[in-house]
Amino acid sequence: MRVLLVHDAVIPVFAYGGTERVVWDLGRALTRLGHKVTFLARPGSRCDFADVLPLDRKQPLKPQIPRKVDIVHVQTLPDFDADNDFDLPFLMTEHGNATTAPTHRFLNTVFISRDQAARHNSDQYVYNGLDWDAYGPVDFSRARGYHHFLAKAAAPEKNVRGAIAVARAANVRLEVLGGNRLNFKRGFRFTPWPGIGFNGMVGGEKKSRLLNGSRGLIYPVRWTEPFGLVVIESLYFGCPVFATPYGSLKELVVEDVGFVSTSKAELVEAVKANAFDPRRCHDYARENFNAMTMARGYLEKYETIVNGGKLHARRPWLTDKSTDLLPWGE
């Protein structure tokens, strides 16, 4: 099958780049399965296993789509018009939380978790997967002396303050990956305690090294997580997850690889106990959230659409924005 992957970003990814990493790994996996992949991405993109075309967001999409493709797969581009921008079979993956409109304009929308799909009255989802070989091996013999938080700490919904509170109450060191000790973005924050380390925005070898030294991810988010790449990355490195059960987290974090609760006190006790098996966490991530499984999931959707079918009888509509989260506290 000839697949065009459309994404408004530069590939490959060099640091965080969550969605970019997923799209890149999807393209690589489809290629390994024998399919022809072309990327339509921002100028400056390059790829050694697929063709790359430059995406100009100031121009209509349709003239930029090559004719010799079987399906067009776009990533969260709600400002394009299905009636005018597509005359080939296509689908869209919704990677985020829709907040501007209650209804998706595309019948062929795919979500990235069961929870996210259900909140849009849909059963069409494909879990994100990653090419774990690109992350390198995990050293299970290495001493693990701290827990970690991995997200943009300046984003209030990621709740770095809550992660710090849990770590301090549990008397464990916390390394924050994704923020600095002094922050002026989206609200002032200064963290004085020496038991909380800050590593800025990290990626590549440094990120892998920090994750490989961690005993677990503390992640008490205050929003409906569509998927949570930081969760599966942490699990791959043998880190159990201690999180709130919002969005996809209650389905990703099963009982033998972590603990979810809306209670700070319960999360503190779980972090203190932390009797999870790092190898089980690693195996769980590799088995359930790998790029080849993701690619095969999308191929099933592609086949339906290329053969003239639709993924939904009516456009998915958002009925649960889940803005009324339980109070964060004891």
Shape: globular
How many beta-strand segments? 14
Examine the coordinates and then state which fold CATH places here, giving the name of the CATH topology of the largest domain.
Answer: Rossmann fold
**Structural class given helices, strands, pairing?**
alpha/beta
Task: State the domain count.
Answer: 2
CATH superfamily of the largest domain: Glycogen Phosphorylase B
N-to-C series of helices and strands: EHEEEHEEHEHEEEEHEHEHEHHH
User: What is the CA-based Rg, rounded?
Assistant: 20 Å
Q: How much strand?
A: 15-25%
CATH architecture of the largest domain: 3-Layer(aba) Sandwich
Q: For the residues shown, what is the average pLDDT?
A: 88
Unreliable spans: none
Beginning-to-end CA distance, first to last residue: 53 Å
Strand order of the largest sheet: 3-2-1-4-5-6
